[in-house]
Amino acid sequence: MSLSIFLLLIIILQNIVVDASSYSNLKIYKSLNAAHHCFRRMNQTHQIGCSSSPHNSFGVAVLLRDDHDLDLVQRSGQDAPYTILISAEKFMNRTIVHNLRNAGSNRISGILILDEGIKPLNGYSPDRSCPNIHSSLYSNRSGLGECVNQRWNIIDSEPQSSSFNQIDNPYEQSDGLQFYHYPFPIFLLRNKTQIDLLKWKIASFNRAYYPKLSLQLSSSMIGAKDSLTCLRRTLMMMNSLVSDVFCDPLKGYNIFHHTIDLKTVKKIEKNSIVMLIVRHDSFSMFEGISPGADSAISSLVVLLAVAHLLNHELVKPKLNHLKKKELMFAIFDGEAWDYIGSSDTVHRIIEGTFPLSNPVIIADNDIKRKLSLEHISHVIELNQLLPSSEINRLYLHKNLHTTGLLRDLIKLIQQESVGISDNLEILTVPEEQPLPPSSAHSFLKRRSDYDFAVLVATNHEKEYTNKFYNSFYESIPHNGDLNELSRDLTNLATLFGRVLYRLLTEESLIPTIHANETIVGGLLKCYLHDSNCPLFRAVLDPERAFQLAHSEPMPPYPTYISAFPASKILREFTRALLFWFTGERSTEIMNRTECDAKNGQNDQQESFQWIAGEHYNGECIHSSAYKIATTSPAINHSTMEIIPENIHLYPIWTESRWSEVSVRMFVVPSLTYEICVVLLGIFIVSWSFIIVVFLDRYSNELFDDNPLNRCKQTNNIDGQPPSQVELVTSSPPGIVITAH
Questions:
Q1: What's the CA dihedral at 637, 639, 645, 650 to 10 degrees?
Q2: 182 and 204 both lie in a single domain
Q3: Domain total for the chain?
Q4: pLDDT, tens only, 61-90
């Protein structure tokens, strides 16, 4: 019993100690809500991005304000390593960031960016001045491959008098901050309350004397070196008893819809398909934040509005009856990373493995109905479309030389723009100017004959008007006026709806039919402001849509392609919207069970989906819109193994995995104080050891309370020694036991 009580006391004491340590941990550390961290990506040859050390990164916090602070953390400071707190505006100065990077992890333990929501006037982009330079159509052409004649992503700024504030010449830095490797973690903090708390704590503690405020940054990356090495390590582990994963290929979903009737068509004719293409993704240096308002969302919204226009009840029947060509919508994923989506699509087309319908619904092996590049006559790409001035100028870019087919297409666009809006102006670019970075490069690298017209429509003639290209600032403020923007994008949707109708039917669309401005405004709200919006809810299950209708607004989803399932939510919403906008309602089907049962039939190219609809009553929609998983063509889609013959043709971008991500602040004492604590601890332990030894040696004399010992030292009542005492026990009557 005594042993059980002893063990119980030990367990209780252990729980008390654990609770006390947890409480002490809460008292020592204050966690910050810095959810956006820079992470590591890799290609065939390099790694870029950030990582903390495996044991986390600690450093004395320093708010970087001027040249003195910069010199302190780089050279003169005695309290290294330092964790740098820097305003978002100063972080956008490449000179400052490169100086901190070159100082090394022994001086700099990490950077915490304090973003108070004020966009810098000069702009900021972490991308290269020539985006996707290594996958360009001109990468092997002298004078064009390095964007010598035309740099697209340029941030103009005027030098300041201070070397600290001076921003380097953008022409001298072809690589943006995204494409460097940093030997320390970088976090982005956007919580105004916690930013103010940090500034107050630094002002209170970080003076010439201790204690000082310090930060612990945790974002240790597991993958390292390059994609080839990391994927090989991952495959080796997956084939063993330990299933550790070091990195994952960037992968997403391409989304398609076409008007080809696979049930009746016997053969797809040459030059019989017109493609309207856009990109779906953007990126930034930080996880979970990639708005892509201009680089991706503007053109995506216009494409969806065009799809909605051509599905109008007065347009679709006539289009189906008069069409002489077929239409295909294509939304490519991963375009910000060397055109992953479009290059994968072109590769599948060339290999004869591109499906013309949902692979789950139908398996079509008829070679006569396989898509070929020769089947495509026009590729019209919508690129960055947000207007940069009061006049909505649209520039039509082409590949160096204009063919007759291209000339006719440009003339057609100019003709159809008449009467749409006085605010819309169509312009062409000089003949000798190359194409801007765009998905069109993937098509032109494989086909460039005179019967193939490729055009890129965008809001800039030369350098980007988008000064926040592929950055966390590429968004539209919540207090911004979406009405005017919706009007401009609606005009563009009307224009390209008319152009496509004319290309397909050789007739003009009814002049009174325009794109729906309410739809355009709703799409902008969904993608840029509130993901719990009416249009997103309309394509959900009715019960779920009704629940969300009574919920709070939700932040927009990031557009970054990523490698994890969370990033696929936005792609599924986009697919569902294209499905809804191009589909038809089955009026005879009144419940989800009947709608889902239609997908079991194998004699169709369309799929059926039960959605909430505009009023959340539920409706069954059937459409041929579908999605295809996409990743680099140099990776096997099924096994994720590297295809050796393709690694020199297509880049392989991977994303490292990580474990814990956190930012915590605490107060660190001086070295003298720590030494005193250690010496005091040694003194206490030493004296404790001496006392324990002393007590152990003299315990018999000090703590001798054994009853038998007292019995030995005590005489009996007759005065005889103990050895002569008769001990009477509970023996049977008449028996006496005598001890001698």
A1: 40
A2: yes
A3: 5
A4: 999 999 999 999 998 888 889 999 999 989
